[in-house]
User: Fold this.
Amino acid sequence: KNNAFSGQVQQHFMRAAYDRNVAERKIPSPGQGPKERIRKQSSFSLAFVAEADEEGDQRHKAYCLVGAGHGGMNGPYESTATFAVEAAKCLLDALESGTDRRSGFGTPMWHLAHLGFLERIQARGGYFKVIDGQPPRDLLTGLYGMAA
Assistant:
């Protein structure tokens, strides 16, 4: 009973903060986002670059390309919701089928990879690719206008 009451109080304060931020035009109100045509034409590409914490000049490097094209998941407008829904579907399917779930602390990908999360995202038009080595200079210049 106490948890339910605490949840209601928290919901009240969150709603008040949301309404205040909308009124102060700090965040858009519902319906003020980009129109469907713009969302359908959107895409996004990200590159994550990693360098191992090793001694010496020859540190191991890798990079990961993530993104989605036109249509399917679109850009940031619908991809966030798609990621959340597909993650939830992975967990619900695992519960229903009795598939082992990974408990404890870890990244979302660690908890979802064995449940087919990447395959679901790829089926919706997303891509995810890890490449060994340093990214080519023209890749970072093309994506971000910066040198590798």
In short: The mean pLDDT is 83. The CA atoms of residues 18 and 46 lie 29 Å apart. Residues 2-23 form the longest helix (22 residues). DSSP finds six helices and three strands in the chain.
